[in-house]
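pinging the channel bc i need a second pair of eyes. not urgent but kinda urgent?? the chain im working w is below, pasted from the shared doc
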Amino acid sequence: MKKVIFILGLLITISFGATLEEATIAYNKGDYQTSKTIFEDLASKGDATAQYNLGVMYDFGKGVKQDYFKAKEWYEKAANQGHASAQYNLGNMYSNGNGVKQDYFKAKEWYEKAANQGDARAQNNLGAMYELGKGVKQDYLKAIEWFEKAANQGHVNAQYNLGIMYVKGYGVKQDYLKAKEYFGKACDNKDQDACRNYKILNQQGY
């Protein structure tokens, strides 16, 4: 299945705390040194958002040499404080084997933490793991459950994945009308594969 995403999140800021805002403004202007200095100061004081943002900088090599080990270190600090995007990104690192030994079981653990906080990206990836049996026992019913949670938040890849599940009858009764409905939602969100599938089903009279 193609619709598993591993896009690591963009910088997160919050509406309060001028220094975080200043750091993010500096980052967006390409002044990575200033943003890194502010993030490091806040991160050393336990600020989970700053820790996450440092992880992003090391993950993408923004203003620093790309270093997956340091990215993982900062993500873990934030994730252990319940930061959902950091948990999601750690799931990606373990799934992809970036800076760590590839470990689908650990990826599942971190995705689950983020998913339980409502992170749609993690919910979609958990669904894919249950569908494919990666790090978990294959379970189409759980795959459907997680895909639905993500799709209900407008997650385009989860909408596409549900369409595929209904076409194939995985974990659900085969239902081309339902498949068409989910492909339509994903198509509305600009997914071209979903648009093609929707068109095919429409031409077949569904």
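so The chain is about 65% helix and 0% strand. and Residues 13-18 have pLDDT under 50 and may be disordered. — does that match what u expected or am i reading it wrong
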